[in-house]
Amino acid sequence: MDHHVAEGATLLAPGLDLVVLERMETEIDKTVTCVCETCTNGWMQRLEENASPLLRSMIVGDPTPLPPARRKLLARWAAKTAIVMECSARTWIRTPRFACEHLRKVGVHPGTQVLVGRYDGQLQLLTHERDLFSRVVDGEKRYVAQTTFVIGKLIIQVFADPWRDSAPQLTEGASHPFVPLLGGNGRVIEWPPGFSIDDSLYDLARCGPIGDDALPPRQANES
């Protein structure tokens, strides 16, 4: 796939406190106006209310068990937020309607994978960035999105390929800085992973899962 465009915006100056989630939601409300009132006050509001307690635990860095039901909820919230934030981007490229409808009616589209990790830096405490890649599907150029959020101590990556019928495959041996939310064979996964992503690793994390060769020797040996 060819890298097409990267867009990003720091939503808030660095500074973590216990109301960072509410501040993020307020910032989104100021910049995004493309969602209809029915969705805003319906399934999206219910999703926000259900996900908020889980998000609060993770954004302040508390160890958080992630059984399948929690992973499903968090993945849907992340996929929804990635799509909503597209409306603030300076590009016409959006998630196709059929994938949005699947998210609304069923849940995360099968071609989506969501990863979560622990952020331990100072520069990206409330950040949203979106990268687009292009590939040819049935003779037409299609776009695949990779969205990265940092919310306090929580870093989330949403890989969305609406033209796949299964989640994008992660590079073998390179996903250990993150916890994949989809899949897992029903077991409980513990968050955060064994080590955190600091500012020196952030750009590598945003460009894709980090391999052992990119990690400091001590961290690579501990993974």
- Global geometry: globular
The major β-sheet equals: 6 strands, antiparallel
Subunit organisation of the chains: single chain
Distance between the termini: 29 Å
The helix content is: 25-40%
Which class do the helix and strand fractions yield?
alpha+beta
Number of domains: 1
Percentage of residues in DSSP E strands: 15-25%
Mean pLDDT: 74
> Numbering strands along the chain, what is their spatial order in the largest sheet?
1-4-5-6-3-7
Question: What are the secondary-structure elements, in order, as H or E?
Answer: EHHHEHHEEEEEEHH
> How large is the radius of gyration?
17 Å
Q: Poorly predicted ranges (pLDDT <50, ≥5 residues)?
A: 1-18, 210-223
Number of strands: 8
Query: What count of helical segments does DSSP give?
Result: 7
Describe the model.
The structure is a single chain. By secondary structure, the protein is α+β, with helices and mostly antiparallel strands. The protein has one domain. The chain starts with a strand and ends with a helix. The radius of gyration is 17 Å and the shape is globular. The protein has seven helices and eight strands.
In short:
With 223 residues, this protein is α+β, with helices and mostly antiparallel strands. It has helices spanning 20-31, 37-40, 43-59, 68-85, 97-105, 199-206, 217-222, and strands at 2-10, 64-66, 112-118, 126-137, 140-151, 154-160, 179-180, 189-191.
